[in-house]
Design a protein that fits this description.
This protein has 491 residues and is of the alpha/beta class. The protein is 35% helix and 21% strand. Strands 16-15-14-13-7-12-11-8-17 form a 9-stranded mixed sheet, sandwiched between helices. The protein has a 6-stranded parallel sheet with strand order 3-2-1-4-5-6. The protein has a two-stranded antiparallel ribbon with strand order 9-10. A hairpin with a 2-residue loop joins strand 9 and strand 10. It starts with 8 loop residues before the first strand and ends in a 10-residue tail after the last helix. The relative contact order is 0.14. It binds 6-O-phosphono-beta-D-glucopyranose (BG6). 6-O-phosphono-beta-D-glucopyranose binds next to loops.
Length: 491
């Protein structure tokens, strides 16, 4: 294990009492402490608008850690040692006067400074300007911001411009937490460390690709945010398109941040636009109605707490993406994501083309495609479905499909799989941007998604209903069936 390879840092965490910080960021920092990865002398300034003392906040964080960290990973001694690093500052983010306190808190100016804005994006510009005006940051400061970067191309440009006025692109760490997931990074290892796949990874050998990111939860009290965003802005513009890029990109020259991001941008630029007359065949949007989740009755989207009963916001999207380049011409990427689906499941399936000439039992021809299944969550792992002969004297040359299976938790039993935020925070501390999204990636992704949203708006068609606990509107099944295929679970 790398120990304290990073220099000590001062982490200023804006929005420290918010949901993200308490549920994800502090538990992740605690895990870094537990793993011995927080350098001696590293400190954290928790910044929020609630009146409280450092002692109150430490107490509150201790309870939150106890709640959010798994029992077997919670150690009160480590938690207390970690919390000694934390100070609290009450600050009105919009008031430049208050920022002097940030400077005073830094008693070791040589420590790396990391500013984490776990706030609504509307605050990014204000915080950046105030930090600059009060000389709280310099050209070495690293700045971490969360998605969503805007709600369309134009608003994302405004936010990026505001940040760009104060910080250079190489100081900005835009989070897409899917890039911190173990198996997502493994896509890079799988593709570029195994020549076996490299030679098969194109339209000559792959017939189509499926990406499913399903959640069984609803919108969990986040109506205000979610209803403005919808599933396409919340999930497709970022997480799903990032997965698509990692599957589709050309090999980067090396593992440096810009080499990887240059290749991802080429994919985003090559996405075929979905014009109004293609919408019926290429995109399905849905909204859940009452149904069941994990055996319990649950309300529909319009009956959730604080719901606007007339909302036409989508909670499900299925679409067919095509990439107009040599490698992927004619290979559809079927993508679907939704809330209140039957289970939490994220997986990518690469469907290989059948062998050019088939010599086995014609009744078994449907088995003849190899599949590579990459499970992102739960049960992280990979399985390659291959065909072998069925065993037994009476079976002749009957074929059987079976997996070559790699389940990480079984094969690498002793190793804990870190949460995405642990890795992302650790990479920020090391100053490595390869798991963070560059401005042009954000903007090309918006450009593609904006057109779909505009088409929905112009058509005036409401989302299609699906009962909670099902795999989305039937139209999403029809979309893939029309092409003579089916979603993997339905096969
Ligand atoms: C977030 C979305 O970015 O990702 C949420 O805003 C979603 O709506 C979440 O639930 C899913 O993340 P994960 O890691 O649980 O798959």
């Amino acid at each position: 294990m790398v120990k304290n390879a990073n220099a000590p840092c001062d982490l200023m965490l804006f929005g420290a009492l918010g949901d993200l910080a308490q549920r994800k960021l502090f538990p992740a920092l605690y895990q870094l402490e537990r793993a011995g990865l927080l350098a001696q002398g590293s400190r954290i300034l928790a910044i929020a608008r609630t009146k409280a003392t450092t002692a109150d906040v430490r107490e509150q964080l201790f309870e939150k850690l106890r709640y959010h960290v798994k029992d077997r990973e919670f150690d009160a001694g480590v938690a207390n040692a970690f919390l000694q690093r934390v100070d609290y500052l009450l600050l009105d983010f919009t008031d430049p006067e208050g920022y002097g306190a940030l400077r005073e808190w830094r008693d070791e100016p040589n420590n790396e400074l990391i500013v984490y804005m776990a706030t609504p994006p509307s605050m990014y510009g204000v915080i950046a300007r105030n930090m600059k005006a009060t000389s709280c940051c310099n050209e070495k400061t690293r700045v971490v911001v969360e998605k969503p970067i805007g709600h369309d191309l134009e608003s994302s440009r405004v936010i990026n411009d505001e940040l760009g006025e104060v910080y250079h692109e190489n100081q900005l760490f835009r989070i897409d937490h899917y890039l911190g997931k173990e198996t997502v990074q493994n896509l890079i290892a799988l593709r570029f460390a195994n020549n076996l796949f490299a030679s098969q990874w194109d339209q000559n050998h792959i017939s189509h690709v499926e990406i499913t990111v399903a959640e069984s939860v609803g919108i969990e009290g986040r109506w205000g945010y979610f209803d403005q965003a919808g599933q396409i802005r919340d999930m497709i513009q970022n997480h799903l398109l990032q997965l698509l890029c990692l599957i589709a990109m050309d090999p980067p020259a090396d593992l440096s941040a810009d080499s990887i991001r240059d290749e991802k941008v080429k994919v985003l630029k090559a996405l075929k636009r979905i014009a109004p007359d293609m919408m019926d065949r290429y995109v399905v949007r849905g909204q859940y109605t009452a149904g069941t989740s994990n055996g319990k009755p649950v309300p529909g989207y319009l009956e959730e707490e604080d719901a606007n009963k007339g909302s036409a916001t989508e909670t499900f999207v299925a679409l067919k993406a095509e990439i107009d380049n040599w490698r992927w011409s004619g290979v559809p990427f079927y993508i679907r994501t939704g809330k209140r689906l039957p289970e939490k499941l994220s997986q990518i399936i690469i469907h290989f083309k059948p062998a050019p000439h088939y010599i086995f039992d014609p009744d078994q021809k449907h088995l003849a495609n190899n599949k590579l299944i990459i499970r992102l969550q739960p049960d992280e792992g990979m399985a390659l479905k291959i065909l072998t002969k069925d065993q037994g004297l009476d079976k002749g040359m009957r074929l059987r499909q079976g997996p070559l299976e790699l389940t990480f938790s079984e094969t690498f039993e002793a190793e804990r799989i870190p949460d995405a935020y642990e890795r992302l925070l650790w990479e920020v501390m090391k100053g490595n941007q390869y798991l963070f999204v560059r401005r042009d990636e954000v903007e090309y992704a918006w450009r593609w998604v904006d057109e779909i949203i505009a088409n929905w708006r112009d058509s005036g068609e409401p989302p299609k209903r699906y009962a909670a606990g099902t795999w989305g509107p039937v139209a999403s099944i029809a979309m893939i069936t029309r092409d003579g295929r089916s979603w993997y679970e339905d096969a």
